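#struct-pred
JK: can someone run the complex with manganese (II) ion? inputs below
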Amino acid sequence: MRIAFISDTHFGFGRGTEREQDCWETVEEAVRRIHEMECDLIVHAGDMFDIKLPRPEDWSRALQLFSKLKIPFVAIHGNHERRGRGLTNPVDGLSKSGIFDYVNASHKIYTIGDERVAVHGIGWVPEAYARDVLAQWNPKPVEGAFNVLVLHQSIAPFIYNPIDPPSLKLEDMPSGFDMYVDGHIHEHQTTSAHGKPFMIVGSTVTTQVNKAEAANEKSFVVVDVEDGQTKIRKVPLNSARRVFYTEIAIDNHRPAEIKKLVESYLDDVLNKHFDKKPLIRIRIVGRLPQGQSFSDTGLNELKDAYTGRCLLSIGSKLSEDTFEHGALQEVREQRLSVDELGFRLLREFLAQQKSKFRFEDIFEHLVDGDAEGALVAMLSEKAAEHGPAGVPI
Ligand SMILES: [Mn+2]
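RT: done, structure tokens with the ligand placed:
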């Protein structure tokens, strides 16, 4: 039995930019190769879409692509798709077409030849609750089947976002499964949990340009299962745009020298042929000579000069941008979505107010501009105070 795993496809990412086809072309390649490799099943570990309310252009293209699949396909939702209680997330919604299956705190069994595989899945929940939610679901392996548990969370030591720390650790994985699979983290990695493989699938498209993205090619994963034993293969995607990241230290260099350093790095990288303009991020670190500012380096003009050959961004950590403190810097550095940032600010505010109010359910309504939904959620929250406490799934 051969299972393909794919994750973090972020359909819709880069819309309106030069990168808008990247998310599609990589998955089109993945689907073609999954068929060529004669896989029996595809599992998607979340963040199929880049936003929770995808445009019709994106969900229709996704349906068109997946409707060509000749094998079963099962997906969970990720943090980019999660919506509040009573609302339908796009992965769940599209699965109603019957083109693929959606699991959330549930499992689905597939029969492949004379073998059975049980895919147990749970979509993303805010990290603080993940441990409780998993304990409450309490999934149990299905007897006589190959059991895969699929999540989309930070699971220590695999942490996506340090400012939203995980409540789950590898040790918290429920025991008895043949394999543990996680989305969310965009770089493919493998380790073990309870003596069984634990695998981060990795994304198919570069959404943030950083050191880790430059070091890891975009891919999907093929797992061969024989007699309960697994062989994991990372399959790099040829259609993925190449990524380069470097830090250039400029201490005590004059602005003209800095420009030369950057130019020689760029010329070195661009010496090779690329089917797609590569993504290049250069980070200038250190201190400029006194009285000089970033604009004196001429690096902004350099961006224009290279625009036909690469997608270049030059960032700096210099004295001149020390004004970028706190939340704004975090948005830039961590690339938090505005939702995630808002979510966190609201949580911090309520913590300061010593409020015990569970804001997670109303947050989604507020983001959607649905004040009535927020009110209903608040009122039902009040009513629930008199009943047993639940955890949001
Ligand atoms: Mn993702």
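RT: quick notes.
Residues 243-334 form one domain.
The radius of gyration is 23 Å.
JK: thanks, will look after standup
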